[in-house]
Amino acid sequence: MTAERVCGLSELEQDTPLRVDPGGVAITVIKDGDGVVHAIGDTCTHGEISLSEGFVEGDTVECWAHGSAFSLITGVPQNLPAYEPVPVYVVVIDGDDVLIDPTVIKEV
């Protein structure tokens, strides 16, 4: 599979998660305070909750249900109750297009 357009850069609000489903894979896309776009697996590894409904603070997104915060850079949980990381995907920006290949997990 190749990277596909998941949204426009102009559609992303700073620190506001957006759920996308390229190739049927649930991914949360976030533009952080520095304007960097991150893509991580959408499902909290503790409680099967959508991280796109969570809260962004700095370089983490926090699951609203149980409070686990995941690094946008590594996918590693920063606190309990989650202890398993979420996948992190490569993001390509082409003009205003945000492209993600859901079959390519970023090496961190």
TrEMBL record:
InterPro entries: Rieske_2Fe-2S, Rieske_2Fe-2S_sf
Keyword entries, A-Z: 2Fe-2S, Dioxygenase, Iron, Iron-sulfur, Metal-binding, Oxidoreductase
Coiled coil: none
Keyword match Iron: yes
SUPFAM superfamilies: ISP domain (SSF50022)
One Gene Ontology MF term: 2 iron, 2 sulfur cluster binding
Domain of life assignment: Bacteria
Positions of the Rieske domain: 4-100
Name of the protein described by the UniProt record: 3-phenylpropionate/trans-cinnamate dioxygenase ferredoxin subunit
Organism: Microbacterium saperdae
